[in-house]
Write a structure and sequence with these properties.
Structural class: alpha/beta
Helix content: 40-55%
Number of helices: 10
CATH class of one domain: Alpha Beta
Largest sheet: 7 strands, parallel
Bound molecules: NADP nicotinamide-adenine-dinucleotide phosphate
Radius of gyration: 18 Å
Number of strands: 13
Length: about 290
C-alpha cells in the first residue's frame, strides 16, 4: 500500500489519482480539506504520525503534507517547525519502523537564489523560515535512506491552494490583466507531472536528492507562455518587479532547478513547458466542458 500525506494539496491529489489509476492501493491523508475520488482519511499528523504508519503498515510513504504558506511560516514559526520538521521526523521514524520506502516532496526554497539552475549537488542555503524547515525535513528523510524530490512553484488544477498558473488562465480567460514579476526566476512545475515523476520513481530504486521541476522562467515569461499557448492576448500580461511586492518572508531571486538528472533517469519531460501547458490546456478544457462553461 502507498500512503500519501497531503492528499488535499495540488501535488498530493494528482499523485493519488495517478497511482490509483495504475491499480496501486493508495491511502491518502488530509486534515482540514476532504477530497473525493480517491481513498482518503482524515488524520492530524501533528497528533500522531508514527501511529498512523504503524497502523496501516504501507510499503511506501509519499510525504507531501507541510505548512506550505511561506509567509505564514515566517510569522508562525512554531507551527511551521512542528509541521515541516517534527512531523517529517515522525513520518521518517514510522516509515523506518515498518520498513517502508520514504519519498519526501521538497522545495527550491532550500536555495538562496543568488545563482539559479541549482543541481542536486549544490549546497543549500535557505533565506526564509519555510526553506529552513523543509531543509531540516530533508535531513530526516536522507538519514533513513529516503528520497527527496525537490519541485518548485507548483501550478495546476484540482484540490489545493490557489496558484499562479491557474490564476493566470482564469484571469486571461475573463479578459483581465495579469501582473507578473519580471525579475524573479523559478521553475514552475505542473502538479500532473509531479504525479508522473512519483509513478516512475516507484518503479526504480533511488536514494538521495532529485530535482524534478519545470524550466527556468520568470513569472512574467511563464504568464506569457500560458497566454501564447492558450491563445490569449499577451498584451494582458503587465510587468512588475520584486520591489513592488512586500513579502513577509524574503524570496530567492533565482531558485530555478536543473532537472536534467530526473529527465534522463525517469523519462518524464518535466522541464518541457510545451508538454506541461498542453496537459494543462487539456485539463482546463475538460473542466470547462464538465462545468458547462466550454
Ligand atoms: N506550492 C509550491 O509551489 C511548492 C513548491 C515546492 C514544494 N512544495 C511542497 O509541496 C507540498 C504541498 O504544499 P502546498 O504548497 O501545495 O501546500 P498546501 O496546499 O498548504 O498543502 C499542505 C498539505 O498538508 C496537509 N496538512 C497540513 N497540516 C496537516 C496536519 N496537521 N495533518 C495532516 N495533513 C496536514 C494539508 O491538508 P489539509 O489541507 O486537508 O489540511 C495539505 O494537504 C509541501 O510538501 C510543500 O513543501 C510546494
Amino acid at each position: 500500500m502507498i500512503l500519501i500525506t497531503g492528499v488535499s494539496s495540488l501535488p498530493g491529489y494528482k499523485t493519488a489519482v495517478k497511482l490509483a489509476s495504475a491499480s496501486l492501493e493508495v491511502l491518502g491523508i488530509y486534515n482540514q480539506h476532504p477530497v473525493s475520488g480517491v481513498n482518503a482519511i482524515k488524520w492530524d499528523l501533528l497528533n500522531d504520525a508514527v501511529g498512523l504508519i504503524r497502523q496501516y503498515k504501507p510499503n511506501v510513504v509519499i510525504h507531501m503534507a507541510a505548512m506550505g504558506d511561506v509567509d505564514g511560516c515566517e510569522i508562525n514559526t512554531e507551527q511551521c517547525y512542528r509541521l515541516n520538521v517534527e512531523v517529517t521526523r515522525n513520518v521518517a521514524k514510522g516509515a523506518y519502523a515498518v520498513g517502508a520506502r520514504l519519498i519526501y516532496l521538497s522545495t527550491d526554497y532550500v536555495f538562496d537564489g543568488s545563482r539559479g539552475m541549482y543541481r542536486e549537488s549544490d549546497a543549500p542555503r535557505p533565506i526564509n523560515y519555510y526553506g529552513l524547515t523543509k531543509l531540516l525535513g530533508e535531513e530526516a528523510v536522507l538519514a533513513m535512506s529516503g528520497t527527496v524530490v525537490r519541485v518548485a512553484w507548483i501550478y495546476g488544477l484540482g484540490p489545493g491552494k490557489p496558484n499562479f498558473g491557474k490564476t493566470v488562465v482564469e484571469k486571461l480567460s475573463r479578459g483581465e490583466e495579469v501582473r507578473a514579476i519580471v525579475d524573479q526566476w523559478g521553475s514552475p512545475t505542473l502538479n500532473t507531472l509531479i504525479a508522473e515523476v512519483m509513478a516512475k520513481l516507484l518503479g526504480r530504486e533511488f536514494e538521495g536528492i532529485l530535482h524534478a521541476a519545470g524550466p527556468r522562467l520568470s513569472r512574467f515569461e511563464f504568464a506569457k507562455a500560458i497566454a501564447e499557448y492558450f491563445s490569449f492576448p499577451t498584451s494582458l500580461i503587465k510587468p512588475i518587479y520584486m520591489r513592488d511586492i512586500s513579502y513577509k518572508a524574503p524570496r530567492p531571486r533565482d531558485s530555478s532547478l536543473d532537472s536534467s538528472l530526473a529527465v534522463k533517469m525517469l523519462g518524464v519531460p518535466i522541464n518541457d513547458i510545451k508538454y506541461a501547458l498542453e496537459i494543462l490546456k487539456r485539463e482546463w478544457e475538460t473542466q470547462a466542458h464538465a462545468t458547462g462553461l466550454g
